[in-house]
C-alpha cells in the first residue's frame, strides 16, 4: 500500500513538473460599442482557480487581475474599470476567458495574460472597427456574393419574357381553333344553303324551257291552220 502511495505521489509530481504552454486564441475582431472576448488556455490543462491570473497591456498596465480566488479591481486601469469580466468557471479547465464590453478604438492592440506561478505568458490581438467600417465591409460582402444590378435586371427580364411566351402561345392557339371552327361552320352552312337553291333553279329553268316549248308548239299549230284556210 505504501509503495502504491509513493508511486502515485511521484507520478503527480512529474505531472505538475511538466512544462506548460499557453495557447492564444485567434485574433479577435469587434465593432465599436460591442463586446470582445479574449481567451488563452494552458497545455496541458491545469487548474487556474487558485493561482494569480493577470491580463495586461505592456506588462504593467493591468486590464484585469485575478488573485486570492477573486477579482482585484484596485489594480485595474481606469480605462477598463467596470468593462471587463473574467469567466471563473473556465479557470478550473486551465482556460482564461476575458470579456471586454463597450469596446472603443483605444482598445485596439495586443493583450497578454500572465501566470506568475509558472512564469507563463500568452498574448492575443484585438482589432476594433468603427460602425461605418463594419457597414462598408457588409456592403462589400453583399456585392461579392450577389450579382450586379444589371445582371439581376437582365435575368428578371428573361424570366418575365419566358413567362409571357406560354400564355401568348396559348392565346394564339385558341384564336386559331376558334377561327377554324367558325370557318368550317360557314362552309357547312353554305353547302346546305346552296343545295336547295340549285334544285329550285333547275326546276325554274325546266319550267321556263317547258313554257317556251309549248309556245313554240302553239305557234307552229297556228301557222299550219293559216296555211290550210282557202283563199
From TrEMBL:
One of its GO terms (cellular component) is external side of plasma membrane. Residues 19-111 form the Ig-like domain. It is found in: Membrane. Residues 1-17 form the signal peptide. PROSITE patterns: IG_LIKE. Its main location: membrane. Residues 130-158, 190-231 are annotated as: Disordered. InterPro entries: Ig-like_dom, Ig-like_dom_sf, Ig-like_fold, Ig_sub, Ig_V-set, IgSF_BTN/MOG. Keywords: Disulfide bond, Glycoprotein, Immunoglobulin domain, Membrane, Signal, Transmembrane, Transmembrane helix. GO terms for molecular function: signaling receptor binding. The keyword Hydrolase does not apply. SUPFAM superfamilies: Immunoglobulin. Residues 131-142, 190-200 have a biased composition (Basic and acidic residues). GO terms for biological process: regulation of cytokine production; regulation of leukocyte cell-cell adhesion; regulation of T cell activation; T cell receptor signaling pathway. The keyword Transmembrane applies. This is Ig-like domain-containing protein. It comes from Champsocephalus esox (pike icefish).
